[in-house]
Amino acid sequence: MSAQTLYDKLWDRHLVRCDDDGTCLLYIDRHLVHEVTSPQAFEGLRLAGRLPWRSGANIAVPDHNVPTTDRTIGISDPLSRIQVETLDANCEEYGITEFAMNDIRQGIVHIIGPEQGVTLPGMTIVCGDSHTSTHGALGTLAFGIGTSEVEHALATQCIIQKKARNMLVSVDGQVGPGITAKDITLAIIGKIGTAGGTGYVIEYGGDAIQALSMEGRMTVCNMSIEAGARAGMIAVDDKTIDYVEGRPYAPGGALWGQAKADWQSLHSDPDAYYDRVVHLDAATIQPQVTWGTSPEMVVAVDGSVPDPEEESDPVKREGMQAALAYMGLAAKTPITEIYPDTIFIGSCTNARIEDLRAAAVVVKGHKLAANIKRAMVVPGSGLVKKQAEAEGLDTIFKAAGFEWREPGCSMCLGMNDDRLSPKERCASTSNRNFEGRQGPGGRTHLVSPAMAAAAAITGHFVDVRTLEV
Amino acid sequence: MDAFSTLNGLVAPLDRSNVDTDAIIPKQFLKSIKRTGFGPNLFDEWRYLDYGEIGTDCSKRPLNPDFVLNQKRYQGAQILLARENFGCGSSREHAPWALLDYGFRAVIAPSYADIFANNCFKNGILPIVLSAEAVVTLFAEVATAPGYQLNIDLEKQQVTTPAGVVFDFAVDAFRKKCLLQGLDDISLTLAHVEEIKAFEVRRKIDEPWLFGP
C-alpha cells in the first residue's frame, strides 16, 4: 500500500461503501449531542418512526444555552429551559447517556469529550457544532455537522461524505517562552486566511506542535474551522496515550493494551502525499491579537491596526473598512493602545485547566484595571472548575475582581445571558470575532488566556511577556 | 425536502465577503426547537434597527433602509448573490432554514464554507459556485437593472442572464440527483443497511474497545 496520511488512514478505516463518483458512507464511532442543534433531529426521527442506530455511540450534554450563574434555581429564561428540557427528554426516551446540567461532568461538549475518555484515538466523531475539530488533537477524524446530519448520524451511524484533500501545516522549530497554542493557531489563520483550509483536512505537525501539551493541541485543532478546514488533526504519540489512560470511558484491562497497540499506527507515513503544505517558523510567532471581525484579521501585539488604504484588493479594502467601523478603531492604532471594557476567559478553545492556570499566573496578586467593567472566568466543565478550585485558582481570580462562573459556552456566543452590550469591547479567549457574535454590537478581540489576563490587570492589550509575574 | 429543477427568480445582491452564519441568523433565534419560522429574522442585525428577540412581531420593528433586502426592488427575491466564503462559522442549520423560510432557493457565490454548503443541499437550496469574474459581472448587472432575474437550470447546470449569457456551474452528481428528485438522505443510506451492519461486525472485531458496555 502506498504511503498514507493520518487522514487517509482514518478515512479508510471508516469507509462502509463508496460510489463511483466518490460519494461515500463513513461510519461514525462517536456522536456528541447538545441542546441547540439536536431537537429538530430528534423530532425528525420521531416523525419518521425511526430509532437511533446505536444509542451507546451517542453522548449528550447541554452547554450552549445553560446559565453560568447559580443553577440551583434552574433556568429562568423559558425558551432556554424548554431547549434543555427537550434534550433531557430526548435522551431519556432514546436511552442516550447525558451529563445533565447539574452533573459535575457537565461542561462544553468539546471539553468533556476528551476529559471523559469519550473521545478516543482512531475514532470518527461528529457533533452538530463546528468546533468538533477539537477532538482531532487525539488522532481522530472529527468534524461539525448540521442538524439534518445529526438526524442522519442518529438513524444510520453514518455520514454521507466525499473525501477532502490533505493539507499539512507544519510549525517548524520551537516557539519562544510565553507563546501559547492560541498564538500558534491565530498565526496560522493569519497566514492562510479563513478560507485557506476550505476543502481540506488539516494535519498539524512540526516540532512546535509535538511540543504542545494535549490541551494545547486541542486549542490548535479547535480553530481549524476558523481556517475553513473540515477537520484538524494531530498524530498520536506517547502524550496522547498517556492523556487517555485511565479516563472514565477509556478502555481498561486487556482492551487497553490492544487499543494502545493499535493507536501507535495513527500517524502519517513518512512519504505521505499532501495536496498542500504550509510552513510556519515557530520562532517568529508573537502573542496575537485580532483587530477586526474575522479571525484572519490578526496581528502581533507589538503591531498596529492595519490601514485599509494600503490594501490593493477593493473587496478586501471594503471589508477592512467595515470591520474598523464596526470595531470603533482607527487605522494605525497601536494594539497596545486598545482598551477593552470586558474580559472573557472561557470557551471550547481555552477553558481547560492549563488555560485557567496560565491566566491565574498573570492575575495573581493584581486587581482588575480601573477601566475594566466586567471580567469573568467560565471553566470548561464541572471537573475543570473543581480542579481549579482545588488549586486555589478561583480565589486568585475572585481576589482580582473576576466573576467565577459555572461551566458552559457562555459569552463565546452569548446564547445565554452572558453577552456584550453594543460597542462593549472584549478581550476574549474564544474563537470568533464576528459582528454580534458575543452580543449585538459587541466588539471582540481574540487572544490567549495569558494575554486576556494581562489586559485585565493593565487595562489595555500588552505583551504578557513584558509583565513581571 | 422540496425538489429543485429550474428557477427563474429575482436576484438580491449581498455585497460582503465572509458572511458568517451568526450574521445570517443570530444566536438568540437558535433557542427555537422548530425548523421553520426563521425567515423574518434572516440577517436580523443588518435588517432591523432594533435588537430582535425570538417571538417579537417583526412587522412592527424599524427596518434599516440601507440594508439590501429592505429595498423595494428586491422584494420577493429567490436568488441571493454573494461574495467569497459565504456561510462561514457555526454549523447551525438554522442559517439555510432562515434563507429558505425567507424565500431563497439558490445562492450564487465564488465560494462557500463547507458545512454551510452541505446544509443547503439538505434543505433544497442550491449553492452555486461561479468564478470570481462571473460573480463580479452579475453584481454589476444587478446594480444597473431593477427587476434583474436569472434563470437557473440544475439539470443543465447553467445560469442564464436576461441577455442570454450562459454560465456553466459544477455540482456534485449525488447532490444534484437528490435535489432534482427531492430525495431524503436517510432513506438512501438505509438502503445499505446490510452493508452498515456487516461493517459494524468487522469493526467490533478490529476495535472492540469502541463498543463498550
Describe the structure.
The complex is a heterodimer of chains A (469) and B (213). Chain A has 469 residues and is an alpha/beta fold. Helices cover 31% and strands 16% of the residues of chain A. Chain A contains 15 helices and 19 strands. Chain A has helices at 6-13, 39-47, 78-94, 109-116, 147-156, 181-192, 207-210, 214-222, 238-244, 253-263, 314-327, 353-363, 382-390, 393-400, 449-458, and strands spanning 15-18, 24-27, 30-33, 58-60, 97-98, 124-127, 141-144, 158-161, 165-172, 200-205, 231-233, 276-281, 288-290, 298-300, 342-345, 374-377, 403-404, 425-428, 443-446. A 5-stranded parallel beta sheet of chain A has the order 5-4-3-6-7. Chain A has a 5-stranded parallel beta sheet with strand order 17-16-15-18-19. The relative contact order of chain A is 0.13. The model of chain A has no long low-confidence stretch (mean pLDDT 97). Chain B has 213 residues and is of the alpha/beta class. Helices cover 31% and strands 14% of the residues of chain B. Chain B is built from 8 helices and 7 strands; from the N terminus they run βααβαβαβαβββααα. Chain B has helices spanning 21-24, 44-47, 94-102, 114-121, 132-144, 173-181, 185-190, 193-206, and strands at residues 6-13, 79-81, 106-109, 126-129, 149-153, 158-160, 166-168. In chain B, strands 4-3-2-1-5-6-7 form a 7-stranded mixed beta sheet. The longest helix of chain B has 14 residues, at 193-206. Chains A and B meet through α2, α3, α5, α10 and α11 of A and α4, α7 and α8 of B.
